[in-house]
Amino acid sequence: MPRKPRKRSGPLLSFSPFGRSMALLCSAKKAKNRLSDSELKEKSAPRSSGDGIVKDTSFENHNEHSDSSDDAEFEGVVQADFAFFDPKPDDFHGVKVLLQNYLDDKLWDLSGFVDLILGQTTVGSVVKIEDDEDEGVYAFVTALNLGRYKDYKCIMELKEFLLKACREDVPSNLKSLLGEKAHVVGLLVSQRVVNLPPQLLPPLYDALFDEVSWATEDEPTEELQKSFCFKSYIMISKIYKHRNAIKKIGNSRDGEEPIIYSKPEDEIFHQLSSWSFSFLLHNQQVTANELKDYHPLGLVMAVDAIKVGTFRKQLHSLIDES
User: Fold this and answer.
1) How far apart are CA 168 and CA 151, in angstroms?
2) Where is this region: Disordered (predicted)?
3) Among 27, 5, 56, which Cα is nearest to 204's?
């Protein structure tokens, strides 16, 4: 009998000014185009492994800046019940939109990568509003075994990208996780519209790591069970680094952080990481005035699986105290 992730609802949380700046920069077109009413009240449908629901959640939308000129012009607060669902083929376009800049400007087999994500239904979730006519994908999270999928074109191209981007002080560690240790390494992929309510994050990551644990016992073959016995996770994300910190010419002005994380959980992952490196991004520009002194950088982190428990506790504390 399939196990069910826990349901959770939480208080309404507001976004920080920098969180709003992120929303101005990166909101995904397909998700935003659906927000046409000032208020939506939806109820969640069952998923095959149970449903995770956060009710009466505030979704802030902004239209001052966007990735596309044909984004819908809507500004305000949307009330909605978000639900976690198992990935399915119909989610292809929504997931692909959220991954458009995952490897910066690299031309790679993104469609094949999306197919891997959607094909792994026992571990991973997509976030939607059930009665949304187009079934828009607002977020997803998954963990892919780099050894299991090592012969897929998209994974080979992703490894090539990482090895080319890494700095001189980490290539041996990176090569090890991408090579001989790949069978115990999970590529943790988490993408979303950046103004998604933050109270969704703890139950979303709880569901992921619970499913990873369950898969080590519930998958139909021993080989598949072992493929989820991760010892390390690798993740690719984005940060904004102050230009003075990049040039190492002194401190930034009062009140300006040297690094701004595009996703709050990335700061926790970064602190817990065994190693990390950043790299220049060529396909993304800063347009929000609050970030005019910052440069976008890619961030690659490796986190030992034994740190997952600490991460979950710290993420709950971070969101609960916000």
Assistant:
1) 26
2) 32-71
3) 5
Q: Which residues lie across from 275 on neighbouring strands? A: 302
The domain in which residue 314 lies consists of 17-320
Task: Report how many domains make up the chain.
Answer: 1
Whole-structure pTM over 0.85, yes or no? no
Rounded-to-integer distance, Cα 64 and Cα 188, Å: 31
Summarize pLDDT for 99-148 with one digit per residue, the tens: 999 999 999 999 999 999 999 999 999 999 877 767 899 999 999 999 99
Report the C-alpha gap between 150 and 173 in whole angstroms.
18
Question: Which amino acid belongs to residue 320?
Answer: D
SS3 52: strand
Helix (H) or strand (E) holding 166: none
- Of 32, 60, 24, 27, the closest CA to residue 290 belongs to 24
In a domain, 283, yes or no: yes
148: closest CA among 118, 190, 120, 189? 120
Give SS3 for 220.
coil
270 in any annotated domain: yes
